[in-house]
Model the fold of this input.
Amino acid sequence: MTASNRVPIIGGNWKMNTDRTTGIALAKAVASGVASLQAQGKKVEVAVFPPFVYLPAISETLCAAGSNIALGAQDVYHAEKGAFTGEVSVGMLRDVGVKTVLVGHSERRHVIHEGDDLINLKVRAVLHHAMRCVLCVGEKLEQRETGQTNTINERQVRLGLRDVRPDELDRLVIAYEPVWAIGTGKTATPQDAQDAHRHIRLVLADLFGKDAAAGVRIQYGGSVNAANAKELMSQPDIDGALVGGASLKDADFLQIVSAACGG
Ligand code: PGA
Done:
C-alpha cells in the first residue's frame, strides 16, 4: 500500500462542546455535505466524536440521514464492566452505535494525566472488540525545542501498541498531534509534520513490517483549518486530519474534508 491508496480519514473531535440541539444540527449538516462529496465520487472516510452523553442522539441523526460517517467516542475504559464509577466500556459504546474510539488524546494525557500503560490497555480493548482505534501521540513544545520530537512519538507509539497483534492493524489509525499546536492556532509546517509522520511510519515498520506499516493511516492534528488543510494533507505520509475547533463549524469542517480528497 502507498500514500495513493490509503483512503484519507478526517475526524471531528468535538471535545466538551455542543449541546443536544447544536450537536444534532452539526451532525446533520456534516452528513449532508459528506454525502454530496461522496456522490461526486470523492473517496474519504469521516468520523465525528461528540461528547459521550450525546452519542445516542448523534447516532440516530446519522442513521436517519443514511450517512456513512462513523460515530466516534473521545475515550473509553478498558474493563468490560464493574465498579468503575464514571467510566464507559467498549461494549457500551458499541451498543449506542460507536465504531471508532480516540485513545490517548493529548488532553487525556496532559490534563487528566493518563499514562502510557493505561493508554495501552485501552488501545488493546478497543482493537480486541473489533472497533477502530485512533491512538493519539505528540510532543510538547519544550520537547520539540530540545529535539525530542521523534523520541517522544516513538515512545508513545511503542508503548501504546505494546502487545497489539499484526492482524489488528487494519483497525488502527495514528493521530500525530503536537501538543503545542492543539487549540493554539499554531500548526506544524507541512514539512515538520511530514517528518514526524515518516518517523512514526518507520516505527510501525519496525514493529509490524514495512507492508503493514504502509497500510496504517496517520492523521495530523493541531489547529487544522480550511486554509492549511490542503497543504498538510498533500504530504506523502499525512493521510487525513483530526480536527478540533474547526470541526464545530460545518462549513469549515466540510472544506477540510473536501481538501482531503483533493477538492
Ligand atoms: P484543534 O484540536 O484542531 O482545536 O487544535 C485538535 C485535537 O485536539 O484533536
